Amino acid sequence: QVVLVSGHLDSWDVGQGAMDDGGGAFISWEALSLIKDLGLRPKRTLRLVLWTGEEQGGVGAKQYYQLHKENISNFDIVMESDEGTFQPSGLGFSGSAEARDVVKEIMTLLQPINVTDVFDPADGTDIAYWMRDGVPGASLHNDINKYFWFHHSQGDTMTVQDPNQMNLCAAVWTVVSYVIADMEDMLPR
Asked: What protein family is recorded (predicted)?
């Protein structure tokens, strides 16, 4: 059984793609690194996917889906961060009402950093195939007021990234992915 965390690499002819979506790729990598560094071993596999070709029609996500859809019942949740890594506010979520209740309970663990909201729905080109077929999905919600200042521009460089905000985003990704991967049962479909 798999809990999938992800971001994609959008190298453009301008900028560096650091915020879109290098930040999403980084926090996904960091979540698994933190879990490993803490010596935690969840009941399910945590899988990191760094998608490619999202802006070219989601070809990387489509290929991955085609290769793994026969095991769709083993995918517990698919998570994608693709709207920058600014101050987080919660998660977008798509799934059953019962699964939403579980995710809301998990989000209460993030009260100390004031990131507890669950929004409807989850969004992400790279996880859309899975959600369409009933796999619960989550996307990072954060303050995107400045997102389009940098999106696909010369300004999308590492200087856009705020280490403190990225750490908070990574904390959200880490807590949610680990708790879901370590629950007794998979999220209800």
From this structure: Belongs to the peptidase M28 family.
Sign of CA dihedral 123, 124, 129, 135: negative
Is the pLDDT at 69 greater than 90? The verdict is yes
Q: Looking at residues 74-80, what average pLDDT do you find?
A: 98
Residue 19 lies in a domain: yes
Q: How far apart are CA 157 and CA 97, in angstroms?
A: 39
The catalytically annotated residue of 30, 54, 80, 83 is 54
Give which of 7, 1, 54 is closest to 170, Cα–Cα.
7
Read off the CATH number of the domain in which 49 is found.
3.40.630.10
Closest Cα to residue 127, out of 169, 94, 80, 85? 80
Residue 156 backbone phi and psi in degrees, to 5? -80, 75
Count of alpha carbons within 13 Å of 53, Cβ hemisphere only? Answer: 8
φ, ψ of residue 96 to 5 degrees: the values are: -70, 160
**Is residue 189 in some structural domain?**
no
pLDDT, tens digit (0-9, with 9 covering 90-100), for 146-181: 888 888 888 888 898 999 999 999 999 999 999 999
Residue 90: inside a domain: yes
Provide CB contacts within 8 A for 3, sequence distance 6+: 42, 44, 45, 46, 47, 76, 77, 79, 177, 180, 181
